[in-house]
Amino acid sequence: MSAKIKVGIVGDGYTAEELVRLLAGHPEAEVIAITSLFNIGRDFAAVFPNLLRYTEVICESMELTSFIGRCDAIFVALPHGQAVPVVKEAVAQNKKVIDLGADFRFKQVEVYEEWYGVKHEAPELLEEVVYGIPELYGAQVRQARIVANPGCYPTSAILGMAPVLKAGLVDIRTLIVDSKSGVSGAGRTPGMHNLFCEVNENVKAYNVATHRHGPEIEQVYSWLAGAEATLTFTPHLIPMSRGILSTIYASLTRPVTQTELQALYEDFYRDCFFIRVLPEGQLPMTRAVYTTNHCDIGLVIDPRNGRLVVVSAIDNLVKGASGQAIQNLNLMCGLKETCGLKAAGLLP
Amino acid sequence: MSAKIKVGIVGDGYTAEELVRLLAGHPEAEVIAITSLFNIGRDFAAVFPNLLRYTEVICESMELTSFIGRCDAIFVALPHGQAVPVVKEAVAQNKKVIDLGADFRFKQVEVYEEWYGVKHEAPELLEEVVYGIPELYGAQVRQARIVANPGCYPTSAILGMAPVLKAGLVDIRTLIVDSKSGVSGAGRTPGMHNLFCEVNENVKAYNVATHRHGPEIEQVYSWLAGAEATLTFTPHLIPMSRGILSTIYASLTRPVTQTELQALYEDFYRDCFFIRVLPEGQLPMTRAVYTTNHCDIGLVIDPRNGRLVVVSAIDNLVKGASGQAIQNLNLMCGLKETCGLKAAGLLP
Amino acid sequence: MSAKIKVGIVGDGYTAEELVRLLAGHPEAEVIAITSLFNIGRDFAAVFPNLLRYTEVICESMELTSFIGRCDAIFVALPHGQAVPVVKEAVAQNKKVIDLGADFRFKQVEVYEEWYGVKHEAPELLEEVVYGIPELYGAQVRQARIVANPGCYPTSAILGMAPVLKAGLVDIRTLIVDSKSGVSGAGRTPGMHNLFCEVNENVKAYNVATHRHGPEIEQVYSWLAGAEATLTFTPHLIPMSRGILSTIYASLTRPVTQTELQALYEDFYRDCFFIRVLPEGQLPMTRAVYTTNHCDIGLVIDPRNGRLVVVSAIDNLVKGASGQAIQNLNLMCGLKETCGLKAAGLLP
Amino acid sequence: MSAKIKVGIVGDGYTAEELVRLLAGHPEAEVIAITSLFNIGRDFAAVFPNLLRYTEVICESMELTSFIGRCDAIFVALPHGQAVPVVKEAVAQNKKVIDLGADFRFKQVEVYEEWYGVKHEAPELLEEVVYGIPELYGAQVRQARIVANPGCYPTSAILGMAPVLKAGLVDIRTLIVDSKSGVSGAGRTPGMHNLFCEVNENVKAYNVATHRHGPEIEQVYSWLAGAEATLTFTPHLIPMSRGILSTIYASLTRPVTQTELQALYEDFYRDCFFIRVLPEGQLPMTRAVYTTNHCDIGLVIDPRNGRLVVVSAIDNLVKGASGQAIQNLNLMCGLKETCGLKAAGLLP
Description:
Chain A is an alpha/beta fold. Chain A contains 11 helices and 14 strands. Chain A has helices spanning 14-23, 44-47, 64-70, 84-92, 109-116, 134-143, 152-166, 196-199, 213-225, 258-268, 318-332, and strands at 5-10, 29-35, 59-60, 73-76, 96-99, 130-131, 146-148, 175-181, 204-205, 231-237, 244-251, 275-277, 295-302, 307-314. The radius of gyration of chain A is 20 Å and the shape is globular. Chain A starts with a strand and ends in a 16-residue tail after the last helix.
């Protein structure tokens, strides 16, 4: 057997955990190193006891040059603003690198700097970066050195609308994305916003019209439409651990039948194992994609006002983060995109 | 002390339970009788053990004439299509009656018959019925014999938009109501849709553009706007017991400042104890109104596209059902609307 | 109307919030001041938005002498080790004081110091302190200047076993208390242990045989039995916000019939409004006492091995903390113990 | 590649769903047929939309002879009292059969008939049946034609105590099993007991000292101890979908050190991949075994009274049902017990 791809992970939060969990079942890749700030010297399986018997890796401090030297591919799972040194060193050592944060997602550096409030330290790299949604940009991902893994909300919003945006079927001034997310999207750093007693039996909207994933969605919607799209984006926090359901509204530019719409989507995603366009009359729910790399899409036309309603569901930690990152890795390494990622959802 | 108002309840589901729970603390009314189909002869406090020591009422079978004869006011908490005989008898005996179901909510009988798929057996009563949102129609409620208590989703949607609809500030062709509801809205009759394991850790949209509360909202939006409004209404089921959060989108008809908007709402609801217009920058969450008759409203303008986003939160069983019904009873009986209903929410 | 009792609260966590929520409906007492460390100058109703329109109090820094000077009664809701100065000053100013923490719960200062790992700064006060379970020590509470409000687990464990311990019906070497608690018992300070994603869909035991509430239960069990009782105490954390269910095991010292057992409990708690001994064959659940000051108790004899199983349910924030504290205040002030505390539970 | 083992499943509830989910990733077996009562003719992936793209099987009505004729191995996932005809026909056709229900779990037919209230229709088969806990009875499972898959509670209780029972270290008159289960254990048939709003934010004990898993645990405890053990068994329902945590109490027959105890367990389970004996000071939680076939075990000695407390955690649908059934199938077919079953738990 040929050697497995040696994977290093920078960071030790929920997305790092998911990378390790998913890669434990990957036939062609293995996690050989994980860096940490607060768990240095601890077994990663002690930090996340679900991983006992599935990883022997011990968290280490970041020694950038040697860390990257030992790996074939690097996943960066850090808060925004911290990925540049890792990505630069990975490029310098000619290693593949996938950033799960926001630092390389924008083509226009000013948009990034305005919304994230930090100066970008490596704008010269942005041009070659590939925005890693394999179903849309798979060919480019195969050639990429640097992949910017999309945000969780954008993944659900973009996959839900790509076919109609490309087909020019929706009025790009009428786009509204109303998303409902589980709490794991808020990360593992304790705060009032992710405490059980504050979140349980509660639903709220937050950062209405000001969330940073808004411009990220707009960027890709504009690419797909070939014109500048604007949208209203409203994220909501709901009392569950995993999952994003996005309900997306847009006015149709011309009358469309349900049959035509279904055919458009099925055709668009014909070769995409992870995208499941649901039959007419069926709507997605997050449980059907729980723990998986799938995105389920349901389509409704409101005939009384010519409005399209698209509902898409993903697991925010898998297709919305770590699963999609591995899907990108697969393509960058010449593997099938599904390698190590096929798994049915969890119900109940 | 003068005698209390004698209240009878028809039905034994969650809204009946909430009526009993809330009226247990009401200084001027008391529940003297409850009818049931399946619990006849059982203590109501055995059906709902939380009520032990708060009610002595025993569920009885429905003997319409004598039941209504013993009561001063009747709450009807039955599935739609079953309220007419009770309401007719109450009117015949000159008793006040509040229907918590859908049978008397529509002024146009054909809309009711189309959406509910049943023939209305007493269309002649519809004209005098008052649609019971006290904050909007309190003067009429005070004079009413029959009040149609609004649906849970409509309550949140209508209170959230009334000020701007009345002021003509929103384009009534652009209305979208995206609502998130706890599971108690699905009632207490066991089915696959309200099983713990099917609902927990799950979010889904359902009845998109076809839910029966859609035309109910449209009816009142049209009254408020003075012109026929259409909307897209998308209900979602989320993993919690109580609460509805409605996120409502509409294009502004002219530029409005946040300050102007806040003032409009605060003014509109100045004398309404149960409506809390949140200060600029603050958004509602269902926990803040949990178990209460309050409706919290937050306001956001998306400046990049001239769209208004209103977020409103209620407890679907209280302001969305039994609490509002008691608020209506209070007005019909000449009491203060807040009588027996003041209570802070539950957090945690 | 005579003036209300002026209440001051030291602390701004969940038990402070519950005191304010419950006292908002109290006819004879009102909260006039709350101290805080981190929210000084903020409306308490901004810290807890559920309280909007139910309190006008603004959080203040602690100026001990003047704070206590303005109040008739003080609730101390601080972490252990911090209550002594407040209690001393309250005593000096001849004000009633109720400590919701652990500092005054133990008669033997060495037990406190061993289990809490701190030196007690006012052991001379311990003798006069009354351990505030009104159903057992109500007469003393009426005379008390200082009440130590019991821990949440001890409240459920003690009320569940008091009748059989007093009657000598159980072997005090065989006591096992297996308790299941909601997450609010872990407080509002963010940490890994009370994060939504760590607690949701999870159950675990913690501090087995080493939890500080163990010796507190033992102390009172010993008082009740008139001999030194030992027990094994196992707390568990379960995915809900409120509620404690304690399942308590002990070998019977002689054969007892179910009828005899029921009569013993009903007799023991005959005049206790808040204790509901459930009829034979019925078992408690936390929902039936949710948000209330009740304790529900169910009794089972395992006939095959002569073992008694008692199940008791409380709301940890009400009967397990703030509600019981107000019940104690009522007695200390010569009011009925139920004053302001009658409220049916929440289901759903 | 040699042909896969052809698996047939009788039943379409949650355990059937889990069999299909787990076998979708099994390299040596495949589900070729599923029988149903109410979903005949429907895609199984329409009944459970999480399985879309993971099974093509269509639910069929039960034609016993031909159904079994097409399969190599049969899983029976029916309510108790219904398995006998299927098992008999499987034996007649010389096929391997694993019953996930209770009909073949008891060696003494009178115990079964007393606790389940039905007459056993094939007592002559009981002797050859193997009780399928591979970690204890793996050698017999390898030779078995019929395996009785253990109950969910018994699996957790038995694995937790086997080492000390075999070693004679605990007094078998002092055994208490206090178990906490997620709601999926209550099955998928809608009823008041498994409704979201009745279970959410609630914990209760049920069937105290009368649950049918009590005698099942006693049977195996007695086998292990070599003497008749009795126990008190208390199941609890807690608000989560999956998982059982059992807290087990017993008096030690002689003083034992923690080190000795750890060594005993580690030694006993040395070759058992799915049993993870946690290091001293660490306690199990259900999340660490969520979705997996693992059983985590933690050990505590209460030094003040010589009592042992064992905590064990499983996923009730995997190690407590379908995963263990596949583990048994693996052994019956000469495969490694871990075949197709290695997967890390889910956190968050």
